[in-house]
Amino acid sequence: MNSTANEPLTDLTLVAPAHLAKRETELDQKLEKVWQRPNGIVGWLCNTNHKDIGIRYVVTAFVFFGLAGLLAFAMRLQLAVPDNTLLGPDRYNQFFTVHGTTMMFLFAVPVMEGMALYFVPLMVGTRNVAFPRMNLFGYYAFLAGGLMLYGSFALNIGADAGWFAYPPLSGPDFAPGKRVDFWSQMITMTEISALVAAVEIICTVFKQRVPGMSLNRIPLYVWAMVVTAFMIIFAMPAVMMASGLLAMDRLTNVTTHFFNPAEGGDVLLYQHLFWFFGHPEVYIIFIPATGFVSNLIPVFARRPVFGYTPLVLSLIATGFIAFGLWVHHMFATPVPELGKSFFTGASIMIAIPNGVQMFCWIATLWGGKPQFKTPLIWVLGFIFIFMIGGLTGVMLASVPIDRQVHDTFFVVAHFHYVLIGGAVFPLFGAIYYWFPKWTGRFLSESLGRWHFALFFVGFNLTFFPMHILGMHGMTRRVYTYSAETGWGTLNLLASSGAVVMGVAMLLFLANVWKSRRTGETAGSNPWNASTLEWATPSPPPSYNFAQLRTVGSRDPLWIDSPETTALVDGLSTEKREVLTTTLLDAHPDHKYELAEDSIWPFLLALVVGLSFTGLIFHPIAFPLGMGFAYLVFILWFWRGNEPKRASLPHVSEGAAS
Ligand code: HEM
Ligand SMILES: [Cu+2]
């Protein structure tokens, strides 16, 4: 970030590919030297390669998914039979809170960011994200947030006020101790990380696309991530406000009264702030997933997508409308009735752009020759399950129905249908699809089908009965129920479904473990797909593309002729230089040198994480932390600690040819 040498474009040219073919290996060697990943443990901490950071996000998020899944399993064991005492009420409160918080803040959002940080730069044809050091900082901020949540949980001071921590329940009067403080600080850390990822995605897409990739040619997955990133920028500050103000109300020596009506505060203010984030959050998870779907369906239908423009417009429309629905989470509060009906209208309206997307996907499949490989099967599972979640969503948008089933298992069923159906199914499709790019090997198709079948059956067994239980009045967040209610059978069914899902996940782990080493090898473009990430070897080298190219269509690897596609020549092979292009038409604009790998992002995240944790115990941690952070910033931006390029080994011209 600190080297902003913007060079003029005098020596940048677009040349015909034939002139360059024989220079490939020499070029590869030079680029490998400049972009190579640093070695050792310290090197690991300093590595700013977007692919490594992306993979770290994905792997870390899956570790959290596993932990939250174990908590869910324990809750299902507790609820399997009436009057059970396996988890007492206090444990159960911590379990559902940590489960929900993990799934939303440490799994669903970061896993989508990680996928994007890996694939967006490849798909727009550049070498790294716009601000590589900040990107690394974002990962460590996320990790720090996760450690806060699980550190406190391990010490039996885990968060226990639900994933949205409403005051007054979460306030100083009703939640003494440090539990909610850890929750609110971890929210801030993970949202810092989400904001970092959003800025990376927007800047990389808007300024680093290859020449010719005008805005109406960028892949639909990239569009989805741009819309998501803008939503993050508007939504995350709201929840940081909510959790920050809550922390200030709670902390000894601070004790503000933002949410304390006795002192002029307002508890509903918290709910507004939280859900102004919370509803868009659902779309921050779902829109990346629709991006996977829009990208996968054309590949497996063997034709360009039907309705590119309506698909993009409905993504943007969803992004806007999603900010006008938040009050549907507050239908049980005294918001004026007329106001509520406005939010009912908006909630039903959002089905329109979602419907447009569904029709475009179906039309693409209809007009193509679908190949039912594992990735497509997951996508079809998504369409089925998300449809059910969408329908119960329309039901809940009606105020009288919502009043009846508010805080029951009907709601738990609904949001697992949309979150697991809308995000986890497409995510698995995307993992089966891109695994060959990550590793150079396919995941096993037959294990993949078993994984799908068991997960699909287990999912419906677990969550479908919850609709019925909710209608019968079983409330969420209550650790047990008595035998007279007659809810035992359906609960046992739901819990046995969780066992089936667990087995499916073990199969998936086995598949990843086995296929990494022994899976069928895949070439650079094994699915014969059309987007630029498939123009690199599998796995891609540290610099992504030996030669940046230009594009002349939306599906460059299908439509552009390799003989006539111009390549970009003139980017430095001595320093980490990328090409920036204009916002709308992606004309070459200038060359831009990216920052080197560095330890300061790690140290900054350490200082910020410690300062936020310390603040839970004493306010002095804040000025101390900011002081140290200031120091780290000075060092971060110090030119002197840039490695000297001249001292690197130099390959003389022509050495390799
Ligand atoms: C994989 C299988 C899963 C199972 C078996 C499961 C099960 C459960 C159970 C039993 C509850 C608590 C119900 C209650 O007493 O209120 C719950 C709550 C919740 N789950 Fe899941 N879940 C799963 C996956 C997920 C995923 C993937 C997400 C999000 C992406 C998620 C998000 C949530 C949220 C936000 C809550 C609400 C927590 C709260 O009430 O504060 N769950 N889940
Ligand atoms: Cu909502």
Strand content: under 5%
Q: Given the C-alpha coordinates, what overall shape results? A: globular
Q: From the alpha-carbon coordinates, what is the Rg to the nearest angstrom?
A: 25 Å
Element-by-element helix/strand order: EEHHHHHHHHHHHHHHHHHEEEHH
Subunit arrangement of the protein: single chain
| Largest sheet strand order | 1-5-4
Structural class: mainly alpha
Summed up, the helix count is: 19
Terminal residue distance: 35 Å
Unreliable sequence segments: 1-6, 644-657
- Extended strand count: 5
Bound molecules: protoporphyrin IX containing FE, copper (II) ion
Largest sheet: 3 strands, antiparallel
The average pLDDT value, as a whole number, equals 92
Fraction in helix = 55-70%
